[in-house]
């Protein structure tokens, strides 16, 4: 199924990085490849499919994530220090979190996330009594 899922689109050639390497100590720089793995693990339960792209090259300053929403829509997400955005729509705003981005793209995600939260609260309530 991973092969069918690949919906990568090449990054825009004219994009230049605004990251100033001299302004940040190396220890403070996030590796976007590691961040992308964390993003996938955080929300995989609320989407049909999600994985770090195998065909678009991720680097320390950018990573690409393929996602299929519960509605069957497929997107290639770009993850940078600025946040996340749909890669196919380069004029769209960045979202600070994957939760915010998926909330705007997928009512099914919103419902699954809400249900998971309710289940967790119920579990906490049961354990507390």
From TrEMBL:
Domain GSKIP intervals: 33-124
Sections of the chain in a coiled coil: none
Gene3D superfamilies: Hypothetical protein (hspc210)
Top-rank taxon: Eukaryota
Alphabetical list of InterPro entries matching this protein: GSKIP, GSKIP_dom, GSKIP_dom_sf
One Pfam family this sequence matches: GSKIP_dom
PANTHER family per UniProt: GSK3B-INTERACTING PROTEIN
Family: Belongs to the GSKIP family.
Protein's name in the database: GSKIP domain-containing protein
